[in-house]
Amino acid sequence: MTTLLFVRHAHSPWVPNREAERPLSASGYAAAERVADQLADHTVDAVVSSPYERAVQTVEPLAERRGLAVERDDGFRERALTDGPVETIGETFESAVRAVWDDWSFAWPAGESSDEAQTRGVAAVERTLDRHAGETVAVGTHGQLLTATLNRYDDRFDVTFWREELTTPDVYEAQFEDGDLLAIERVYTPQE
């Protein structure tokens, strides 16, 4: 059995056109430390992350406490809605996101559909399961990508989950055997 600890990144302030470089906020750094604290009793053999700064910074405290390097895998990066600000396509962030969740095959210009994001995320999961068979791996990722990926294994992970249940940060422990998801549960308690 291989266990993946999916870590949705902590708070990061919005910076237009800097999706990959956006760092954590001060509260985000504190939350990343809480993630490491809450996973202190978990075995962690490896840490893999989206290359986006906020995802890496969220799992760095955990990696540092374990003496592990953070491996980067582009497959865990956030879904690209379009190649620039959504306002250039005449949409708000909310309306642009709603369109790709309402129709999983729809994509904005130079963006990814939910189907495409899911396929990329599942391929990253499969690579991680192959590279780290029998281990426990913390995976730094993003809310929409995580939701679309987990939906492949369990359809309760949908837009409602993303909007109403997933927090920033959040951690879900998923157990896999032979590529199949056996169980998944939330293992993070947000600060009140």
UniProtKB/TrEMBL annotation:
A Pfam family hit: His_Phos_1
Name of the featured protein: Histidine phosphatase family protein
Recorded superkingdom: Archaea
PANTHER family: ADENOSYLCOBALAMIN_ALPHA-RIBAZOLE PHOSPHATASE, BROAD-SPECIFICITY PHOSPHATASE YOR283W-RELATED
SMART domains according to UniProt: PGAM
Species whose genome carries this gene: Halomarina rubra
Organism lineage: Archaea, Methanobacteriati, Methanobacteriota, Stenosarchaea group, Halobacteria
